Amino acid sequence: MKLKQYTQYKELDFPWINEIPKGWEIFRAKYLFKQIDIRSSNGEEELLSVSERYGVTPRKNVNVTMFKAESYRGYKLCWPGDLVINSLWAWMQGLGFSKYHGIVSTAYGVYRLKDFYKIHYKYFDYLFRSSTYLWELRVRSKGIWRSRYQLTDDAFMTMPVIVPPKYEQKQIVKFLDFKCGKIAKFIRNKRSLIKLLKEQKQAIINQVVTKGINSHAKMKPSGVEWIGNIPEHWQYFKLKRLVQFNPSKSELGNEVKMSDRVVFLPMEAVSIDGKIKCIYKYELSEIWNGFTYFKRGDVVIAKITPCFENGKGAYLEKLETSFGFGTTEFIVIRPTKKIRGDFLYYVTMNSKFRKDGEEIMTGAAGQKRVSTDFVKNYIIALPLTDEQDQIVKYIKKKLEGVDYLIEKTKHQIELIQEYSTRLISDVVTGKVDVRDVKIQDAADKKLLDEIDASEEIGENGNDIKEVPDGN
Q1: Does 419 score more than 60 pLDDT?
Q2: Dmax over Cα atoms in the chain, in whole Å?
Q3: Which CATH architecture has domain 235-382?
Q4: Which has the least CB within 10 A, 7, 90, 94, 399?
Q5: 213-257: per-residue pLDDT in tens?
Q6: 10-66+73-163: CATH homologous superfamily?
Q7: Element (H, E) at 157
Q8: Lowest mean pLDDT: which of 70-74, 257-261, 273-277, 342-346?
Q9: Residue 41's Cα: distance from chain center in Å?
């Protein structure tokens, strides 16, 4: 479907847009919205969160680690159709119109469309969350550095807002709901494929780290229920007999200087498929205290929910500095001569290991952790190091094709998301005309309401923002 432009435009003097269709208008937000500041008397309403990806959604639907208040009494109330803005993250699309009645932080802004414009509030949801409006939101958000920009009430209320005629707002919403519903269905199907491929990866790992790669090997009972039979020449051990846990940074001695820069790994720098991003580097003086120490060749596993269950961890073979520091939510395991580091990593990726750890986690909801003692006392089956090397090579070869398909599918999702971003921006700003587009009454658009944030977590698990100040 090729969309045409409007026949007539009028010029504007804004850095982020230079024209809109003739017949459209520009209003300051204060003429369209009124500020709402009604507080909860008991704090028992649904707690809502506002973020770039999900807009406004129940906090329970997104896995985030953040301050949990003893009471939410006095939090701001909002209702369906209200605009909620996370003032610190508005410049990163941390805003949206709520579909829920609930409570939000007192640091958030809550605004309600005045009656004349209230019918088509979803047009404004598409508009404010479009890539075009990022520039306006960024410029109006003031601060010192990128995580401290803030959009004040006055800054929002003086913001220019594009307003098409009401009947066009309705058509724009209808068109974008339909198109975004199609896109949502495509993405859901692709994510389902990725899930199946990851299950295939997991099955390969589970099989070979407990049974080996020789299907004709003579077997014997391991004496451990979850392991079952193992190759006759294998042995089984508690992990603490094979590795060192959480080594001390004191081993570095006096060979380092506080001015040395080393890699820092926050949780978001470690993926669920064992990859690390060495993009953060700090002087030792900034991270020497209060963080987790490790060396190249160690294995790290996340201990907090849901990162542990999702498989966050890595073999630090490619750490860009000889040692580094990271989030306190890591358990560090150092292999010895009895067990290869990459084999050890695959052992910790075994789904049974993750499931057993999940069952014995302790702590408050959303803050549960697996204990180091659980990992220390976990029993694994172990071949000699030469066979460990063979198993690792086998796993890597078997996973190559699966990983290729996963990355290809992820790329397809990224492309359709980029298309969606461009399409929304073009439609809500009048670069293309959708007034005469015939839209089927298809059920696909319902996916916009059916797909909630919890379905999209997956890739990074619970990304704990534990990066030293000043980064």
Answers
A1: yes
A2: 81
A3: Alpha-Beta Complex (3.90)
A4: 7
A5: 998 999 998 888 778 899 999 999 999 999 999 999 999 998 899
A6: DNA methylase specificity domains (3.90.220.20)
A7: helix 153-157
A8: 70-74
A9: 33
Query: What are the structure tokens assigned to 48, written together?
Result: 């809502």
- For residue 116, give the H/E element and its range: none
Q: What is the pTM of this model?
A: 0.78
Chain mean pLDDT for the chain: 88
At residue 446, the pLDDT reads 52
**Residue ranges per structural domain of the chain:** 10-66+73-163, 168-207+389-460, 235-382
142 pLDDT tier (thresholds 50, 70, 90):
confident
Tell whether omega for the bond before 306 is within 30 degrees of 0, i.e. cis.
yes
The SS3 of residue 166 is helix
- Cα separation, 205 vs 201, whole angstroms: 6
Token readout for 206 is 């589970």
Paired sense of beta strands 102-104 and 160-163, if any: unpaired
Output phi, psi for 197, to 5 deg. -65, -40
Q: Residue 182's closest CA among 411, 420, 410, 1?
A: 420
